[in-house]
């Protein structure tokens, strides 16, 4: 069967998914991220009314936008759909869950208990790692350009007056061009070493307050600019508009994932379903997305914990307003539209902190709204402005209010807020905390539904509202509930739970490391895994739990080694803590290779494909940049895997096709000890939209040293239908075959393209060169000198057959099957080659291998005689006798 396979599929690219994509790709696993939403480079977020009206996620209605709005009976909710998940529209606050709030077996009002099977201590290294990667930094309120942010000062004053803790939390925002540099407004930001997947210049924060609409300046350090760019740098395949519909375990191990690829141009209502399989499946589609996928596919996961759907909570979210703040008799400016959406936080202690009678802890943060309301305002009349805003909001969020008995909120809101609600003296307050996580997500009529109300958290909400009223009083403001509060509804942007972690299947769906009980290799990395409300804004905790999950996963695969990865923590799991080499300590190496040749559709043998392609003038070429991310690790690992990026160009494919994902293996082990392969696997999509895989190999096997040149420069390849991984080659449908060659000119150019990056560039280049030459030496050295019979696979047929039998049983089998190379075309060239092998070339080769300078031109010089052998290779290939990729 022709099916794509990868080490890891990650569903969703929010906080859980992005961290997983980066950590696992960085460790060398092949990772495919399936994200249903689109990507949003800076400058593409909706701002005009027309754009806003399309900015919702509802593919059935032809909408593929950013906001996914849910209306349940007890509450409403907004989450995000896009590459970077909630980080695209979140308010950037990174707060750690308070140490004591990791409660253990805390009784819930209506039975059961909440328990966190992980502690703050265990999570701290992962918090550190995520904060580092997201560039968390407190709002620079003490800096002149930022000091005039009135709302932050107002919150500070109110907290001081009320005896509450106030802080400037870490914000994942760039206030300066580089971390630690002098802050400034609108300054060009320097990209980190791993680059930026959008390739668009980012600028530091200009305090426009538009964070929850998406940052058009790129000042937010959202996941696309950070984890996902780093994941992509390490080879992760990020696929947008790919929505996962079905998941199931495979009988032979691993998982299968069915997905559709939306096309906003055609808006197909029923896009074609495709399947990818993987060894490990990471669910990170958010609390709603992941729980829905598991509920929908539950029958395929027999024995899944009954905790599925439980522990849902809205993280105690409450939105209220302070209106017309006054300082004595004069209006007190709060300037809610100046600054990022949130700048500061007041902490309400919790009973578990040792404050008797305090109840459940919470945070209250200053909110903001953008200063762009011009597009909503046609008249200067303020009352109309409010009505219009509310009307627009109502229209845009139609589904959001769909469950409310009467949806005419505009009048209510206008009446309540009155003139000047969005004036300089008003401020939204955002509350959140440890509400009671006793909600249940379930399927009703095939759709996700939630049984959850504020009832069991009444005490918590009462305390929150009374504290907000006290803040209003201190600031001389009028306190106003959000109008929908009167219907005992809340709006949550922090949904959590649904597939909670627990110590055993009776307690949770997944274990404390996110692995689903009873289903090895299936992980939950997102907000669904939360066993209760985080309390503060949850995304940092979700990301830290995912980081911890990855460390455990990599330990299980034996891939945690070296020192700490730049954006991940390796300790904090119970399985010890070998460390992983940091990016700053690694040296990478890259070079560019260009090869050209012929290809024919319908042919299965490369030689025949080359011949037919040549006859019909069907050329194919590629230009690849091969990148070794960490030379040390590359040399250590037996497969010697590097990334391949670039393009394939062929008229039969419809022109130049970008490589979507590519791998290159240098001298990975072949079917015999003295046989090595250079493998190429390139995924691309042809002009007709058909996914294709070029699978190629250069066959480096023991024979005359003169074969060094043709062997290392001749690439046999097949093109498969679909994006196929190696394990599925045998079953994959072959679209065609051919041969590519590296010309001397191209090789000379290639030598000029070698680059290194990192602390030990020259040494790395030398090690790489030494490896290259010594591997060749290993394969082609004359075995005569080492007590072996010479291998004469280039000798005329009978000699080759007997030599193969004598030295290499597998080669002998190849020979019998007619798959071993046979010098049928040019006996003279073979004889020449043999002669050189026995004499001069061997000596040359030895010189090269022992060379101090390790220059590639010397290798060419040693192989120059091989131009003759090229003729032989051509003949072999033409006869379809090219070696197999085994
Ligand atoms: C306006 C707003 C402000 C916020 N402010 C803050 C804040 O300041 N600090 C904070 O900590 N948190 C904040 N949050 C909450 C934060 O965004 C979420 O807690 C966080 O994003 C959850 O992370 P996650 O990994 O669980 O899922 P998400 O980030 O929601 O990511 C899930 C991803 O999965 C994708 N997906 C869903 N279903 C599928 C499918 N079937 N196939 C493929 N892909 C799928 C979605 O498109 C999405 O990209 C805010 C949220 C909002 C809406
Ligand atoms: S305030 Fe404006 S510029 Fe700053 S992060 Fe938010 S959206 Fe970007």
UniProtKB/TrEMBL annotation:
Keyword Transmembrane on entry: no
Entry keywords, A to Z: Cholesterol metabolism, FAD, Flavoprotein, Isomerase, Lipid metabolism, Oxidoreductase, Steroid metabolism, Sterol metabolism
Domain (Glucose-methanol-choline oxidoreductase N-terminal): residue spans on this chain: 204-296
Region (Disordered), start-end ranges: 561-585
Xref: Pfam families: DAO (PF01266), GMC_oxred_C (PF05199), GMC_oxred_N (PF00732)
Record EC number: 1.1.3.6, 5.3.3.1
Keyword Nucleotide-binding: no
Co-factor(s): FAD
Pathway this chain belongs to: Steroid metabolism; cholesterol degradation
Domain FAD dependent oxidoreductase: 7-68
Residues forming coiled coils: none
The Glucose-methanol-choline oxidoreductase C-terminal domain, residue ranges: 490-545
Domain of life: Bacteria
Family: Belongs to the GMC oxidoreductase family.
The protein, known as: Cholesterol oxidase
Organism of provenance: Actinoallomurus liliacearum
Lineage start: Bacteria, Bacillati, Actinomycetota, Actinomycetes, Streptosporangiales
